[in-house]
Amino acid sequence: MVVLHCLVKWLGWNVILGKACSSEMAMLSNFFLNESWTFRSFGRDVVSGSNLLLRLLRFQVICGAGIALAMVLLNLFYRYLGVNLYAANLLAILLVTFWNFWMNALFNWGGDRKSKGSAALQNPPPVAVRRAEDP
Fold first, then answer.
1. Contact 73, 90 (CB under 8 A)
2. How does residue 30 score in pLDDT terms, banded at 50, 70 and 90?
3. Inside any domain, residue 55
4. Which domain, by its residues, includes 56?
5. Is residue 98 in a domain?
């Protein structure tokens, strides 16, 4: 939001262009945070540069769709519904965050999980149910 504020209020950029640039900066930092923290166990076995670049490309495509969605939502909330710029941006970010995480978990790092053959994550063992009459 700081980047959006600087671009729109200080530099006089159009809201949509400012949103696109600030979103790209956020996407790059999010990719590397996901790679090193959130999904680190999925990336450790796939350390070659080409696989990293492929994940980055998939991440960019998925989140690029998220940016487009965020721009539509920001424009809707800010221009048409009269919501404050920062509240509208926060709402758009929150909605698109769920989209980005879900899609990347399924199609980006989730693909690495399947190729590793981690059946335990895909098919967890059944949970033992204790009946009332069991000691």
1. no
2. confident
3. yes
4. 2-36+48-112
5. yes
